[in-house]
Amino acid sequence: MANDTKAAACLYKQTLLAGLWRENPVFRLLLGMCPTLAVTAAVKPALTMGLSVIFVLLCSNIVVSLMRNLLKPHLRILMFTLTIATFVTIADLFLKAFVPVMSERLGPYVPLIIVNCIIICRAEACASKNNLVVSIIDALGMGVGFTLALCILAGVRELLATGTIFEIQIFALAEKGGWFVPWAAMSMPVGAFITLGLLLGLVNVVCKRKS
Amino acid sequence: MDTLHILLIGFISIVLIKNLVFTKFLGICPYLGVSGRIDMAFGMGMAVTFVVTLSGTLTWMIDHWVLMKLDLEVTRYVCFILVIAGAVQLVEMYLRKFFPALYESFGIFLPLITTNCAILGLCLFIHLWEIDNLLEAVVLSFGAGIGFTMAICIMAGIRENLNLADVPHCLKGAPITLITAGILALAFMGFAGMIS
């Protein structure tokens, strides 16, 4: 009995950690690239996006896991999408009501969470096969991993584009007597593509060193 | 301005200036996935163009004639995704019947068009830009598909040559594709001032 709980705890821990590094959705699985590139011009929208994704992922994993025995194979993708669309509508209305500035800034990328591959991938690969507890832990691991990746990318881009992180001045700007000249390209699409490309390269190097 | 003029400007702007891939980051997953060979990239582009034209038009009609009339705008996202899933199913059945070879070569990518953000993204942008003319919505949807096809074909052409280049080992695959896309996005920024 004690062994069983120990094995279960070990499985939970592994599931949780997998999302953070070994199977990080952005850096390792290359899922959910559109929001990753689109909302990472600054840390604040990136964090809002990450939290919305955690909410939707958690709710959809719970629902899918609960109804996994009722699903017909050919209808499951449709059911997943409808579940996700419902929770995304809730998240969108919540953002519109309580943080209208962020909602305005994220624009169509909040409803686009519906077609974020991470969520449908987790519903298919994890929640439709596992029990409630594993699905919840998996959703948390993946969601936090996604949010972290988003924040790292957004941090690099915001720092280089404006010299700030979280709208707090880190580098002294040249126009105010400092040394830092803002790199405008970083807040544009170019910066998104190139920074993500270089970060992926960096992750590859680190992984190779480790193994 | 007369209608034709507006339509033409809308078409050019969505293909070049507001290109979904390079400026809105939509459809990046298939963009990284199938841009390895130019013939597959073109096929994928055509499938997306067809689905996006169909679903852009249908969602505009549903949005304006049903949801707004009945005050059901809360269900917009659910309706949009259902329309898109239906349109993809239709294309899949059509291809399987009439172009089995093309259908085989698509494999998993065809059902994946459902979760292609370019399509839902365009439907949402049409709503966001407050397009209130059916013809304009059709032209924009078609233009978005053409823009996607163009982007993915340019990328496939570059990647075929990139295979022969000496890329650092850690940048092989997705990283170098993203960096190349970044440079392409920089080039497309040049179109920004074309229409004011």
Task: Tell me about the largest β-sheet of chain B.
Answer: none
Shape of chain A: globular
Q: Assign the structural class of chain A, choosing from mainly alpha, mainly beta, alpha/beta, alpha+beta, or little secondary structure.
A: mainly alpha
Approximate shape of chain B: globular
Reading the helices and strands of chain B in chain order gives HHHHHHHHHH
Structural class of chain B, by secondary structure, is mainly alpha
DSSP summary, beta strand count of chain B: 0
Give the N-terminus to C-terminus distance of chain A in angstroms. Answer: 35 Å
| Low-pLDDT residue intervals, each spanning 5 or more residues of chain B | none
Q: What's the count of strands of chain A?
A: 2
How would you describe what is shown here?
The complex is a heterodimer of chains A (211) and B (196). With 211 residues, chain A is an all-alpha fold. Chain A has one domain. Helix content of chain A is 68%, strand content 2%. Chain A has helices at residues 2-20, 33-38, 43-66, 76-98, 100-106, 117-127, 132-162, 189-210, and strands at 164-165, 168-169. Chain A has a two-stranded antiparallel ribbon with strand order 1-2. In chain A, strand 1 and strand 2 form a beta hairpin. The radius of gyration of chain A is 19 Å and the shape is globular. Chain B is an all-alpha fold and 196 residues long. Chain B contains ten helices and no strands. Chain B has helices spanning 3-17, 20-24, 28-33, 38-70, 76-98, 100-106, 109-112, 117-128, 134-162, 174-189. In chain B, helix 5 packs across helix 6 (100-106). The interface between A and B is large, with 42 and 43 residues.
List keywords for this structure.
heterodimer; A: 211 residues; mainly alpha; two-stranded antiparallel sheet; globular; B: 196 residues; 10 helices
